[in-house]
Amino acid sequence: MLGSLRVRLPLVFLAGIVLAGVITTLVAIRLFQEFSQDQELAKLNREANGIAQLYSEAVNASYGNKHDRSAPKFAAATLEHATGDKIYFIGPRNPFPGQVTGLTQLRAKIDWHILGKSLTFEMTPPGTHQKYLAVANPVSSAGTPIGAIVVATKKTDVRHQVIQLILRLALAGLLGLLIAALLAWYLSRRIVRPVLQLSDAVDKVSTGDYDVEVPQNAPGELGHLSQRVGQMAQRLGEVEQMERNFLMSVSHELRTPLTAIRGHVSALLEGVVDDPEQQRLSLETVGSEAQRLERLVGDILDLAKLDTHRFTITKEEVDMAQLIDQAYERYREEAHKRSIDYRREVAASPVIVSDGDRVLQVVGNLLSNAFHATPDGGRISLGLAQENGTVHVAVQDTGPGIPAEARERLFRPFVSNTGGGTGLGLAIAKELSVALGGRIDLESEVGKGSTFELVLPA
Q: Where residue 240 sits, what CATH number does that domain have?
């Protein structure tokens, strides 16, 4: 259970929040302690300065009578009640001899050189075991320090404020943690559910089931991943279908010439055919079917080489007009037998540097595709032109045409637009054209025919 992403994701999320909360709380407490202490010291300084000034004025008012100074009407107890702090006196003697001031005198070693300044220190007053934060301000008589008023407050007062802050932060943290837990649960469901669906989809794909459902409304990168997984499953299904089609096509393409070869060879061996002319025709048929098998095997090998990038291209001068004549002659007899209007239109005679055999193979594959697509009595034209530094070889037919949605798939291996053949011709032609530094363009209109154009650099 703990190994599940659905559980681990919220736990990691909450752990990060708790860690951030603890660090933030510690920093806040430290800052609050420093702030509280600074505030407390500022308050003690104001009180010490004011009270010391009051006592200094009272001393100076009785300055002429040094032995019978009048104590101020305000009492230390009243000031302590007003400020909430303790008030002490440090000095060699009572500043008001014979008078009750209510001031508790502290016995301490005083550096009279610095007594004229405000001092901040910690102390433990007599009769207590608790630390006090104290500020001492001088009491002066005629400008001469005769002692100091000390205003002190318990350090526990600051700690009490810190404890209150910690309690409030803890309460706020628990509330925030509860909200974060709900948010983490919601986010984990939002994120993990598509991941689990993708995992199930990938498991199905691994078993060969490509009809899978992927999350449609997954957020962000998960949506992109879902889309790609769906496309991958669809493409794998298409590849598997193409492989089945290929096996059926190849088995059919192999069986047909093999059956013809076996039949003619058996007839020749058994002496069924004794006429020399018939024997010659049988041998020609065997040779023709053997060439057909050789072309099929060659196509498969070419495709394998192109897929593994182990295909080599030679460089030589190629007379394109002569090459077009050669390609045209290959199919003239078939055009005559099927009453196809077979034309050749040569508008230029360029000589290019390329691989002549491979260029002829591409043009031958385009012509073969055109003859497969064109019905008897149709029209096929083979054209050659040169413009803008490129050579164009166009093969136009009057076949059924190719719908726009099927044009991209047409150049994939084992896909045939005519329902016959292995579907390798156009795939090999496209890969070869790229290897030769060119491309194949396609224009087609359903019901009127198609034009395949090989474009090569001149």
A: 1.10.287.130
How does 411-449 read in b/e, with b if 16+ C-beta sit within 10 Å? bebbbbbeeebbbbbbbbbbbbbebbebebeeebeeeeb
Distance CA 44, CA 158 (A): 13
Residue 66 in domain: yes
If asked whether residues 288 and 224 sit together in one domain, one would say yes
DSSP state of 129: -
* Sign of the dihedral through C-alpha 65, 71, 72, 76: positive
Task: Report the candidate in 319, 349, 350, 352 with the shortest Cα–Cα distance to residue 436.
Answer: 352
Q: Are strands 144-154 and 86-90 parallel, antiparallel or unpaired?
A: antiparallel
**Kind of pairing, strands 449-457 and 439-445?**
antiparallel
Which H/E stretch holds residue 415? none
Q: Give the tens place of pLDDT for each residue, 161-192.
A: 677 777 777 787 778 777 877 777 777 666 66
> Looking at this protein, which amino acid is placed at residue 402?
I
Which residue range is the domain that position 67 belongs to? 5-159
86 and 27 co-located in one domain: yes
Pair (321, 425) in one structural domain: yes
- Cα angle 251, 235, 218 (rounded to 5 degrees) comes to 160
> What is the largest distance, in Å, between two alpha-carbon atoms of the chain?
166
pLDDT tens digit sequence for 132-164: 888 888 888 777 778 888 888 887 666 666 777
SS3 state of residue 345: strand
User: Per the domain annotation, does 188 fall within a domain?
Assistant: no
